């Protein structure tokens, strides 16, 4: 059974930092793109950042560029999202997801972790 389990969310003040973690299990994720998405109340889901298996290619949404960093440890089946300079508009549920590099749709999703940034 494939599982993606996020952790590391919480309440932080504006300008603060959090590090989200995603533990993947149940299969090998070799050749999978891992991504972080978020969804704020009343809004649609947004793609935040993605990283390829090798880590050689990353993507960041414009609204997090320069503030967030995605990374992965394939030996541990972990994906991370370091979030610095947090803003109230970053408040959302953050989800980890995985897809085969040959696919456009994500195959697996975590249950999400809440990030709340107070002003």
SSE blueprint and pairings:
Layout: E1 3-7, E2 10-13, E3 18-25, E4 32-39, E5 45-51, E6 58-60, E7 68-73, E8 78-83, E9 92-100, E10 108-109, E11 113-118
Parallel strand pairs: 2-11
Antiparallel strand pairs: 1-3, 3-8, 4-5, 4-9, 5-6, 7-8, 9-10, 9-11
Can you describe what's shown?
By secondary structure, the protein is mainly β. It contains no helices and eleven strands. It has strands at residues 3-7, 10-13, 18-25, 32-39, 45-51, 58-60, 68-73, 78-83, 92-100, 108-109, 113-118. The strands form two sheets. Strands 2, 4, 5, 6, 9, 10 and 11 form a seven-stranded mixed β-sheet that branches. Strand 4 and strand 5 (45-51) form a beta hairpin. The radius of gyration is 13 Å and the shape is globular.
The ordered H/E elements are: EEEEEEEEEEE
Main sheet overview: 7 strands, mixed
Count, helices: 0
Give the fraction of residues assigned to helices.
Answer: under 10%
Task: For this entry, give a set of tags.
single chain, 0% helix, mainly beta
Q: How would you summarize this macromolecular structure in one to three sentences?
A:
The chain is mostly beta strands and 119 residues long.
């Amino acid at each position: 059974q494939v599982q993606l389990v996020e952790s590391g969310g919480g309440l932080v003040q504006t300008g603060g930092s959090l590090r989200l973690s995603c533990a993947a299990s149940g299969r090998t994720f070799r050749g999978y793109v891992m991504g972080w998405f978020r969804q704020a109340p009343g809004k649609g889901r947004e793609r935040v950042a993605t990283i390829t298996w090798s880590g050689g290619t990353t993507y960041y949404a414009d609204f997090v560029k320069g503030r967030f960093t995605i990374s992965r440890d394939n030996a541990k089946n972990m994906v991370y999202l370091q979030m610095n300079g947090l803003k109230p508009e970053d408040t959302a549920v953050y989800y980890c997801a995985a897809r085969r590099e040959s696919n456009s749709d994500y195959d697996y999703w975590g249950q999400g972790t809440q990030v709340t940034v107070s002003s």
